[in-house]
Design brief:
Elements: H1 5-15, H2 55-77, E1 81-84, E2 106-109, H3 123-137, H4 140-146, E3 151-157, H5 164-175, E4 178-181, H6 190-198, E5 204-208, H7 233-241, E6 251-257, H8 265-268, E7 275-278, H9 284-295, H10 303-311, H11 318-325, H12 331-393
Parallel strand pairs: 1-4, 3-6, 3-7, 4-5, 5-6
Antiparallel strand pairs: 1-2
Length: 394
């Protein structure tokens, strides 16, 4: 906690004025005579009375307890903020320091209503993530005991539209952690990365989306494309679990990617990305959540079984399902729209399979024609040779 310099100055000054035996004193602001008519000071204070023998208990236990409870209440009621480097000034109404005071980040309030209950994920996976988050935030002393930085890494991977960004927002709302949205492609060097990350606050989530799109973070076995950046993989690794990883507490680092196989394995090992979360295509359980969220229904005697049956045969993202559920306020019509979507996807998948086989068949047919032509040419050549030989004999 940053100490108040005015308070420190007042404390030093008052120590020279107050007798150690003084039990009560009042500080009064002296108002100039010409301002007294217009000056209306606000008088607000709390007075705590206690026996003299309880002085140490009050100062060392009760007041710290009150401060801790006040901190919890403030955190519970605070707005989660979304920070970005793209606009280094604040649009947040309750942001007192105009961003984070460093001039590197600007912020807005994250008014995202998503919660874990609203995520279209397998219930077991949601439970596992919540338990992991709870375990992380309560283990400050444990991390100190084992000599590790108090941080946690999550890798969210899967196709586009499977809810990676929604999961990040749900985590931030659940923990009341601010989000720092960091684009590696906007950074030129390791020193700029270090300066940017050091300007983030405790109790925050640092998000690097589509990390596979940043050349230095790709698998080193694959030849990278030419780049002007001096940002390196080792620079990021040093902040994640090197000496610089201890600069800050209670931080979560999240990477997202559509192509996990493209990322350098060094980034993915435990201690850097501690938990890998596969964001899959929509499942029947995920559809139940979406239907409840968008249509406020839990079942339909005919259409629910049809939809869940088709979902076993085709791949569809939660975003695609949600879009069709929003197209009609009538639940039955909306569900029929989802059925049509799934049937169309099934037909497209079957047509694609047929098209994949067709070139092979055409190739085989062409080869057979060529072989047949060769055979006919060979036979014709033999026949000509026999005729020529026969003429010579005659």
């Amino acid at each position: 906690m940053t100490r108040n310099q005015i308070y420190e100055s007042a404390e030093l000054y008052l120590h020279t004025k107050i007798n150690p035996n003084t039990g009560r004193f009042k500080f009064v602001l002296e108002v100039p005579e010409n301002q007294k008519e217009h000056f209306q000071p606000e008088k607000r204070y709390f007075e705590l009375s206690f026996n003299k023998q309880d002085r140490e208990t009050v100062l060392n236990e009760y007041l710290p307890f009150v401060m801790e409870k006040a901190k919890e209440i403030k955190e519970k009621d605070r707005n989660v903020k979304l920070y970005t480097r793209d606009c280094p000034y604040s649009y947040s109404e309750d942001d007192e320091d105009g961003g984070n005071g460093s001039g590197v980040w600007g912020c807005v309030n994250l008014d995202h209503p998503v919660t874990f209950e609203k995520l279209a994920m397998v219930p077991e996976m949601k439970k596992q993530i919540i338990e992991d988050l709870d375990r992380f935030v309560r283990r400050k002393e444990y991390y100190k005991k084992v000599g590790k930085a108090w941080k946690r890494g999550y890798l969210l991977y899967g196709p586009p539209g499977t809810g990676k960004s929604s999961l990040i927002a749900a985590m931030a709302n659940y923990l009341k952690f601010d989000i720092y949205d960091l684009e590696l492609t906007s950074l030129y060097s390791n020193s700029e990365l270090k300066r940017t990350l050091l300007s983030t606050t405790n109790r925050s989530i640092i998000v690097i989306e589509d990390i596979d799109c940043s050349a230095p973070m790709l698998n080193r076995e694959v030849e990278p494309e030419p780049s002007d950046t001096k940002l390196t993989l080792s620079g990021l690794l040093n902040f994640m679990d090197g000496l610089w990883s201890n600069c800050g507490d209670e931080r979560i680092i999240i990477f997202t990617t559509n192509h996990k196989e493209k990322i350098d394995p060094a980034l993915l090992r435990p201690g850097r990305m501690d938990m890998h979360i596969h964001m899959s295509y929509c499942t029947p359980a995920g559809f139940d959540v979406l239907a409840l969220n968008y249509l406020a229904i839990r079942d339909h005697p005919k259409l629910f079984p049809d939809i869940k049956g088709l979902m076993q045969e085709v791949k569809v993202t939660p975003a695609e399902i949600a879009e069709h559920l929003m197209r009609n306020e009538d639940a039955e019509l909306a569900l029929e729209g989802v059925v049509e979507l799934l049937k169309r996807k099934k037909a497209e998948a079957e047509e694609e399979k047929i098209n994949e086989k067709s070139p092979v068949q055409e190739t085989n047919t062409g080869t057979e024609v060529q072989e047949e032509a060769k055979k006919e040419a060979k036979i014709e050549k033999i026949v000509k040779s026999l005729k020529s030989f026969r003429k010579k004999i005659d």
